[in-house]
């Protein structure tokens, strides 16, 4: 397993660092593009940084995105999804919400997960309990 941490690089910098350190401590290979804002100072450098990130995404089978996120993370997730669909690469995409309240709009829009396995059923039960009858 190899993890790519995609997140708002400034807003979630401290959280990204903690996640990175915990994964390293657990001896899980991980890539955290910390230098994205320093290196991408003009359009040409932005392309180079993007290529480095996309190359890392190709090597990773877990993509972790701290929510909410913006356009740059959306493009990274889109690339991972394209690899998963077009090339049948095993990519697990995890959207990490910082709290239950920030997950509500996503849950309200997308509804329950499909599947009858115990984990999916348990997740849906928890989400229904937390958000039953709530309005955004």
Task: Tell me briefly what this model is.
The protein has 136 residues and is of the alpha/beta class. It has helices spanning 13-25, 36-39, 43-59, 71-86, 100-110, 118-131; strands at 3-6, 30-31, 62-67, 92-97. Helix 4 links the parallel strand 3 and strand 4 (92-97).
Residue fraction in strands: 5-15%
| Oligomerization | single chain
In angstroms, what separates the terminal alpha carbons?
A: 37 Å
Low-confidence stretches: none
Order of helices and strands: EHEHHEHEHH
**Amount of helix:** 55-70%
**In what order do the strands lie side by side in the largest sheet?**
2-1-3-4
- Average per-residue pLDDT, rounded, comes to 77
Any idea what the shape is?
A: globular
Q: Summarize the biggest pleated sheet.
A: 4 strands, parallel
**Total number of strands:** 4
Word description of this protein:
By secondary structure, the chain is of the alpha/beta class. The chain is 55% helix and 13% strand. It is built from six helices and four strands; from the N terminus they run βαβααβαβαα. The protein has helices at 13-25, 36-39, 43-59, 71-86, 100-110, 118-131; strands at 3-6, 30-31, 62-67, 92-97. A four-stranded parallel beta sheet has the order 2-1-3-4, with helices on both faces. Strand 3, helix 4 and strand 4 (92-97) form a beta-alpha-beta unit. The radius of gyration is 17 Å and the shape is globular. The chain starts with a strand and ends in a 5-residue tail after the last helix. The model has no long low-confidence stretch (mean pLDDT 77).
Task: Please describe the structure with a list of short key phrases separated by commas or semicolons.
136 residues; four-stranded parallel sheet; globular
């Amino acid at each position: 397993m190899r993890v790519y941490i995609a997140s708002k690089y400034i807003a979630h910098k401290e959280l990204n660092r903690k996640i990175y350190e915990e994964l390293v401590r657990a001896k899980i290979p991980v890539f955290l593009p910390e230098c994205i804002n320093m290196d991408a100072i003009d359009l040409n450098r932005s392309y180079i940084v993007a290529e480095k990130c996309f190359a890392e995404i190709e090597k990773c089978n877990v993509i972790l995105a701290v929510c909410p996120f913006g356009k740059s993370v959306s493009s990274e997730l889109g690339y991972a999804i394209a690899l998963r669909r077009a090339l049948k690469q095993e990519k697990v995409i995890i959207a990490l919400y910082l709290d239950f309240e920030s997950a509500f709009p996503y849950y309200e829009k997308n509804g329950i997960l499909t599947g009858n396995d115990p984990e999916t059923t348990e997740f849906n039960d928890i989400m229904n309990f937390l958000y039953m009858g709530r309005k955004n």
